[in-house]
Write a structure and sequence with these properties.
The protein has one helix and nine strands; from the N terminus they run αβββββββββ. The protein is of the alpha+beta class.
Length: 134
Amino acid sequence: MTPNKSFVIACLLVSLLCGISFSVGATHISKPVLIEPKTQYLVGEKIVINGWVDYNAQPTAGVLLNFRVRAEKGALIDEKSYPSDKQGHFQFELDTRNLQPGAYTITITSHCLEIHRDICSYNEEALTFNLNNP
């Protein structure tokens, strides 16, 4: 085999191996997990949603989470983003004094750790709750 052919084959093998190694770790899978969420509230009652971020079956600190609350017709009511705490937990609070009775959905999306944002899978958890007249 000529040196040129050997060089070309070696380059192809290296390219193939690099391509395989880049795709192996292509996603960062973290997901929000809700802890005993309530689904019935009264207008004026503060809604508190507690949970933790699951990454490889462990709570994970510093994972950016996005919280979106929508009315049943899709109108955005509230949106906030902040990271999970040092123990991997999060808490979201919503003041309902100015909201109308009805069904609402809160969607919590994991935006992963900062170092994994480019390979994040953006897993989410949604909870529908009802807001009733007192």
